[in-house]
Amino acid sequence: MTKWAFNMALFREYIGNYMKTKLTYRADFWVEVVADLMFSATNLIFIFIVFQHTPALGNWSEAEVVFVYGYFMIPYGIFGTFVNLWNFSERYIVKGEMDRILTRPAHSLVQIMLENVDPPSLIGSFVGLAIMGSAWTTLGLPFHWYDPLVLFVMTIGSVLIYFGMYTSLASISFYSDAPTGIVPLMFNIQNYGRYPIQIYNKGIRFLLTWVLPFAFVGVYPASFFLGRHGDLGMSLLTPVVGIVVGAFGLWVWNRGVHRYRGAGS
Amino acid sequence: MLAIDVAELRKQFKVQKNREGLSGALKDLFKREHTVVTAVKDISFQIPQGEICGYIGENGAGKSTTIKMLTGILVPTSGKLQVNGYVPYKDREEFVRGIGVVFGQRSQLWWDIGVIESFRLLRKVYRVSETDFRRRLDELVETLQLQDLLNRPVRKLSLGQRMRCELVAALLHQPSILFLDEPTIGLDIVVKTEIREFLKRLNREHGTTILLTTHDLQDIEALCSRVIMLDDGRIIYDGGLDELKQRWGKGREVQFQFTDPIRLMEVQKLTGGLAVRWTRENEFTAKVWIPRELNVSEVLSRVVGAPEMDISDIKIFETNTDEIVREIYQSGSAEVNAAALQEEKRAEEPVPAGGVRS
């Protein structure tokens, strides 16, 4: 518990410093916000265009697909804020900044996550919440008192899945000298999880559920609220899968750190 | 109590072999070959608390690798390792709270924010109380004269200024051991002296154990009571600096300039009975080599006291540490060269056989 309190205190401190630096580069902050939103907007537009040609996708209506997409944006924004590991290999392994991290008394992954926090991504989460809300009314879904609570738990589960997947991916840099092109590949597969999984064939469905469980960051948790497509079992599995994948990522990381070999000099 | 206790410490790296050419690259794609490089070869040493120890060696001798194992960054391949009572890589987070680390080539500070903000952040990371932090910071800022720099962002500091800030950053939590990896690299002579003085004071007043690697032997002469010299992953010398000089030093040389032309015979006669060696540099100049155990003044008095010689100038040369160390490095690498030569010979042998085949 004290460890958590300590990490939270560190988080406050790092965010404070982030704000101080970003205030000097204000334009940068807004450019990033706009870029993030544009990215989501193009995806939404893609959905709208598809539905101009067909009334339903594998039994899913436009509003339902948009609902799933809105849900996806919430954990994705949180993930992007805290687990910004895109340049991990280059900055910490190749340039050897990991040396510095390892001489400090806090968990190495916590330090790296905090050094790279990216609050602009969080705006995407709010936009996602708004999209989900509007689709909710369009679909005329009932609202239960426990829905916000479930959404909260599902979101945490989904964030943990992302965290676990990308942490394990970043940990590969500890084992292999040359960072491989696996991150773009992963990114592409992850994008499939944003759409209803029922529209894919069996192979992809299996892949997205049990191998790279990105379906748990979109359609499974979102369908809890969509009565018609509800699959209670799969929905409730979200936090479980989150904990398993998250723990796996942390385990791979902790093992990887012991293989760190430093850079030059 | 021992600050650092190292026994049979070894670190091996697996290095990928890249084969030549396009076909080689293709082969690498499917089957990688690795060679094992041993950077640190079963070294043992112990450093008691409160000692300043210099760790020297050529580039690639394994200095940095050792330091990184001692600070918990790298996990050793084998051997025993205990620093401050901890096994560094096992209880890393707990262990690093008791040590300070300065890497001359890498900054501990945040690039974009003011120096003081970096210090505040480190205070949180190291869980130093506000009062301790204040007291410590005031003391350090005063001794290193950083008052004017505190609010500037790190990227706008000169190297010398940054280095002084790095020292503060490494010492805010009052570590009992300080590791310095080339702390004076690239600094001008004034800053170098300042930093040396500061380190000496730190050691004297707080009893901080200091282990530093350096290429600048003046750092060693100014600071260290003990030197560990590394070559190709092995310790080739471990002991006092004076002993090092005595063991490897080649005595002293005195050069005399005479007003009249001289002959070797004449000057040799002056020091008859002493184990010295004369050389004639030119018509008016002669040099005498005096072994360490002999008194220079004895030789001097004999030459100067000789009535038939008129001396216009005298110079005394002492072999300095630089020369000694260069000599040791050279003799160390001379062995390596011999081994490499043999290797080459062995490699050459199949060539005539190939010639026969063709």
From TrEMBL, chain A:
The yes or no answer to whether the keyword Membrane is present is yes
> Which residue windows are transmembrane per the record?
29-51, 66-88, 122-143, 149-169, 204-226, 232-253
Q: Which InterPro entries match?
A: ABC-2_transporter-like (IPR010390)
Q: Which UniProt keywords apply?
A: Membrane, Transmembrane, Transmembrane helix
Query: Is ATP-binding one of the keywords?
Result: no
Source organism's superkingdom? Bacteria
Which Pfam family is an annotated match for this chain, by its short name? ABC2_membrane_6
Per its record, how is this protein called by name?
ABC transporter permease
Q: Which organism is it from?
A: Cohnella pontilimi
UniProtKB/TrEMBL annotation, chain B:
PROSITE patterns found in the cross-reference section:
ABC_TRANSPORTER_2 (PS50893)
Record keywords? ATP-binding, Nucleotide-binding, Transport
- A GO MF term: ATP binding
Q: Which CDD domains match?
A: ABC_NatA_like
- This protein's record includes keyword Transport: yes
Judging by the UniProt lineage, the source's domain of life is: Bacteria
Q: Note one Pfam family from the annotation.
A: ABC_tran
Q: Which PANTHER family match?
A: ABC TRANSPORTER ATP-BINDING PROTEIN, ABC-TRANSPORT PROTEIN, ATP-BINDING COMPONENT
Name recorded for this polypeptide: ATP-binding cassette domain-containing protein
Organism, by scientific name, is Cohnella pontilimi
